């Protein structure tokens, strides 16, 4: 029953409503009530059937679904549930199973809704996996601001349970092709876990999808779990020399050791949900990576039928495109800007997209992140964007402007709004997110005198509560309306769109003032509601 799989246990059963979590007066079918007799009956039967089929299957994982819903029905509240903490009901449930099967072990995770240690005793054959999801920032835990909290939590859980394990993470879930070279960071963390008396560690990777250098990572992480003192650099060298020709192995070993050391020594945080810009600041120096990519590429012809090589080639080509997309204009960008203020897309971008297409097909790779974003869609989005960008004028490129609205704490960098670097469907790269306020800019007319229109790029990603704006207004500095554009309501789940507004001409009644205001109004949707704007182009 590993992971969030109770739904599989319950599939095909005639389930009463009481099996689901109650919040207020409603039963919500995307979470369970852990004091439900029916839920216990079905899980209890499943444990018996699984164990009877194979007596080696002695450890069981019981988790709430992966969301923040907590059942607050009368029985769950009676055992101690609060509106945010389901631990009392879950441990009550585990204790009942543990009593029925004293020779088996039952685990849950300290994750999202399992927060506080219950006030009642846990059975001897009950354990917990403590999730590091809130602390995993690509820095050894002992060197972070989270260390004291983590240490205190582990000490308290160990007082409560004999079996305390760690659920750790080893990839960037927004981009499985981000190398995320965390071997030495993980080595330090494993030493810490051992010192704190942790019984064991599960390291969560990319599951069924490929992540860059996953075979290397799996091999070395497995060795680290046996011996936390191994020499990582030696193991990297040994691994690549066992897989590839000496020249290619040396190139791979030197580069991977370099980035693993850079990742370890750099104090910048890189969470397991991060855009390419943060990876570049952490370990992915474009100059070093582009040089390594060219060196690696020399081996393609001789390795064109080697699946391992082709998987790596797919990932590295994707990464190079991501660095170029994030860099925008310049040496490591996808384009240059000529004297006429025209964006000129480099030929290399099209060649790399062709390579990515060929490599991914040969390697049989189709997706690149946790949300199953498709490589084909990524390539098509790139091609559509650079087709629109090529020879498009950008009079507003890196020109100064003011933001009059409130900025979100993590989105204070307003330069992404006119740096010519474009966003795709991942909100982490090149998008400016506004959740606290509408986006309001003050612009000097002198900066954009040759412009005839403004083109905006927006993202809608309803899973992350990001929506297209409702309207865009051009105002004078007294907030008197000059022009307004209403967007047609759109129920798209995930996509991007461009919106173009023609600037007032000499024939219009209202004219642009010397300084004017652009106000992008968030969508009028109840609950969480953010706006994502990428590039504002005056052309």
Automatic annotation (TrEMBL):
<dbReference type="InterPro" id="IPR032287">
    <property type="entry name" value="DUF4838"/>
</dbReference>
<protein>
    <submittedName>
        <fullName>DUF4838 domain-containing protein</fullName>
    </submittedName>
</protein>
<dbReference type="Pfam" id="PF16126">
    <property type="entry name" value="DUF4838"/>
</dbReference>
């Amino acid at each position: 029953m590993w992971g969030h799989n109770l739904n599989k246990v319950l599939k095909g059963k005639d389930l009463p409503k009481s099996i689901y979590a109650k919040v207020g007066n409603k039963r919500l079918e995307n979470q369970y009530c852990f004091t439900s007799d029916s839920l216990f009956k079905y899980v209890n039967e499943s444990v018996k059937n699984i164990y009877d089929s194979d007596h080696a299957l002695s450890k069981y994982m019981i988790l709430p679904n992966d969301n923040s819903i907590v059942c607050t029905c009368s029985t769950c509240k009676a055992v101690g549930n609060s509106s945010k903490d389901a631990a009392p009901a879950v441990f009550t449930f585990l204790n009942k199973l543990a009593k029925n099967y004293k020779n088996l072990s039952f685990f849950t995770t300290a994750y999202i809704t399992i927060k506080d240690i219950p006030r009642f005793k846990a059975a001897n054959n009950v354990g917990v996996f403590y999730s590091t999801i809130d602390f995993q920032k690509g820095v050894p835990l002992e060197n972070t601001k989270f260390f004291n909290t983590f240490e205190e939590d582990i000490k308290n859980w160990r007082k409560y349970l004999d079996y305390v394990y760690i659920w750790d993470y080893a990839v960037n879930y927004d981009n499985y092709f981000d190398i995320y070279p965390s071997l030495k960071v993980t080595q330090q963390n494993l030493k810490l876990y051992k010192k704190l008396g942790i019984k064991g560690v599960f390291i969560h990777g990319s599951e069924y999808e490929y992540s860059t250098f996953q075979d290397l990572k799996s091999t070395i992480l497995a060795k680290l779990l046996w011996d936390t003192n191994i020499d990582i650099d030696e193991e990297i060298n040994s691994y690549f020399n066992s897989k590839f020709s000496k020249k290619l192995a040396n190139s791979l070993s030197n580069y991977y050791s370099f980035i693993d050391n850079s990742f370890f020594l750099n104090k910048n945080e890189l969470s397991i949900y991060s855009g390419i810009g943060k990876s570049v600041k952490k370990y992915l120096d474009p100059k070093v990576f582009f040089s390594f990519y060219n060196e690696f590429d020399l081996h393609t012809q001789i390795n064109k039928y080697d699946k391992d090589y082709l998987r790596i080639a797919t990932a590295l080509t994707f990464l190079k495109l991501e660095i170029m997309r994030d860099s925008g204009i310049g040496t490591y960008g996808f384009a240059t800007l000529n004297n006429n203020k025209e964006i000129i897309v480099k030929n290399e971008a099209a060649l790399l997209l062709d390579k990515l297409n060929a490599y991914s097909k040969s390697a049989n790779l189709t997706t690149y992140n946790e949300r199953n974003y498709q490589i084909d869609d990524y390539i098509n989005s790139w091609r559509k964007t650079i087709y629109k960008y090529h020879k498009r004028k950008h009079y507003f490129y890196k020109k100064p402007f003011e933001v009059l609205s409130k900025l979100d704490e993590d989105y204070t960098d307003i330069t992404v709004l006119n740096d010519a670097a474009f966003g795709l469907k991942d909100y982490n790269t090149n998008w400016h997110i506004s959740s606290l306020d509408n986006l309001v800019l003050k612009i000097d007319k002198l900066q954009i005198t040759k412009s005839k229109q403004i083109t905006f790029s927006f993202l809608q990603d309803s899973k992350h509560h990001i929506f297209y704006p409702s309207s865009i207004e051009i105002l004078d500095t007294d907030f008197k309306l000059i022009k307004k554009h209403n967007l047609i309501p759109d129920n798209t789940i995930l996509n991007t769109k461009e919106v173009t507004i023609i600037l007032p001409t000499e024939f219009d009644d209202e004219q642009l003032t010397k300084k004017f205001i652009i106000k992008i109004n968030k969508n009028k949707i109840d609950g969480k509601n953010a706006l994502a704007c990428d590039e504002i182009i005056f052309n």
